[in-house]
Sequence to fold (787 residues):
Amino acid sequence: MQRIRSLSLLCIAWLLISTADAVAQSPPAESQDPHGILALRAAIEDGMALAPAHEAQGRDYLARLQQLIPALEQASGEEADRRAAELATLRREALAANPLVSSRPLLFVARPQYRADHHNTATMFQTGEINTGSFQGGGALKTIDLATGAVTTLLDVPDGVARDPDVSFDGTRILFSMRRNREDDYHIYEINADGSGLRQITFGSGLSDIDPIYLPDERILFTSTREPKYCMCNRHIMGNLFTMDADGSNMQQIGRSTLHEGHAALLPDGRILYDRWEYVDRNFGDAQGVWSCNPDGTNHAVYWGNNTNSPGAVLDARVIPGTELMLANFSSCHDRPWGALAIVDRRLGLDGRTPVLRTWPADAIELVGKGNYDTFVGVNPKYEDPYPLSDKVFLCARMTGRGEETGIYLLDTFGNEVLLHVESPGCFDPMPLGPRPRPPIIPSRIDLTKTEGYYYVENVYVGTGMETIEPGSVKYLRVVESPEKRFWTGPAWDGGTGQQAPGMAWNDFNNKRIIGTAPVEPDGSAYVAVPADTFVYFQLLDERGMMIQSMRSGTIVRPGETSGCVGCHEPRHSSAQWQNVGTAWQQGPRHLEPWYGPPRLPGFHLRRALVGGQVAMLRNHLAGQQVDLVAEVVVILAVQPEDAGHADMGEIVQAEVQDPHFFLQLVRNRILETAEHVVVGFPRFVDQEGAVGAVEVGAAVRLDSGRRTARGGGFCGVQSARGEGCAGRGGGADQQGTTGKSAGGRLVHGGCPFFDTKHGMGGGSDVQNSIFAKDCSTTWKRYPREN
Fold:
């Protein structure tokens, strides 16, 4: 009896916890509530408070629980197991009767778990993608009535997958993505809540449309691969946010990050919450946080977790009703899109352990901030597709303990966790099928007649680290674009830090394009016009053009949008106000001064010493190129200081050429035969068979007119079945095809060197008759330069 009284007192104390505290605090420890009786009692009484019509049923559950307590306390052996099973049955029955889940059907997806691939974004297996063969069908869109246990199939997809459902605000329609079979791709569909009236909304081959949601104005937002791009650290297809009208017309791309944007949901105020993977000059693996934006794509902003090393991905976030808390999936970079569930209070910080209030499983909270981007791979069991029903009760998909099988679970903040339904091959995306609140409509702020938007910085000296910078030392704001990756090749180029394919720069997967610079006013303000719908980041420069500060994430403005910030890297929770009083604001937006000509995508960039008539000779040669466009190539030629006294000193020649083999052709035609040196940055080779190549910024090749031998570093030999040749900085491939040695070079022996003796790209034999070492040309390899 004393034990029962203690339990009763604990129940009373537990029920005195306020709603907000109940969300934030963990349930009683197992030592205090070994059978979960307190948790069950609290859940039953919470359900009774939600719907007075359920009070009689709730009192019955409480009476049964009270009768079971003495038996639980006294039982042992097989009797204890039997009583524990009775309690489990009561718990499942009582929680399934909660009006939040029993008053209307639950919609869910039946499908196999996605096959393991490389990243958590790799779930589309699009036709033509590197992993198309991993697609597996056998799914359906279903409902379950927990009051009766009846399961209804709304749509059967025996050879395909239906996924990512969203219920209309009036509860009468369902939006979802479907792929009918492996030969198809994912498109957006809509169906009535009773399974009738199926209609296809989006169309197209070789593209994927997933993660659709209804917007408050009845338009549709979704993730699509309609802007072609590949993961910069690998070869997988990525998607961005798009919107369209209900009939599929008026499609607009509203997200432009260079990787992936997905799992969109609505905030109570009508904004979009979504997870975004992007990295600018930073680690690739822990750059998947939660962002927000308006439905027209304006005001993209960090919401939480953009600079947290573990978890490596924060996915499928939704705001918990009646709170400012977020329920999200804490996942890993290299895993399926599952992991732990977590409640986050972003008022306590936008990163790190402090804002994380609790997790499922409970011990996963100890992994926050520990290890790296894949720490949460070890979580067991794994959770997916969280859907908060109230501030205390949540639905999700969770592993059942039988391999990778997943079922529909109900969790609550009291400490209960019960399986509501499971069926083969697995259950995902649970949510109520019924009416729900409609957030307010946010009017559009864009002007599609314009091609630019505007950024305003109130004071560049406000922000993290800027307190150490002398006011007045920042002279320019540089705007740099991080363009998408449109091509990929075979094996990795970078010795194991990723799968760049092709490489951009050593240990950095980003493509870059300088758009231009604008002055920073003496008071620290800057106001610039930039190309709209362009993924850019900013750098602060001193009077010499040297960087003082740089962003580590990108941003966009939509056409006609004006976006701004108080400073550079200013704390999101600071009290600083944007007052529009800076000199730059008063003067109006400045147009950017271009960097050595108009912005262009990185191609070949040559800078070398030219003497005598070689400038004119090279200009004439480039002007005569008549080759089909394969990749944009930009050539910049300048006289070096050591050539002082020559007539051509200081002359800069810039030419756009359409031949990605131009460098090799210049060698073939001996135009660069006597060059002292050539410095190559961001070069990209594309051979007639489609192989793409690139070398690092600053790689150097010396063309010796006596032996026509590649000297210096930077070029690595092309991979072939026989191996690969590689020249380190300071080394080179000689005419016998062996590998040069250098202090800074990592040698890879065997195979064809870049300048091949048989086919004449150097080595002293048939330079005139070959522009490519064809029998060694499956891929080019990139090589690291010395520090």
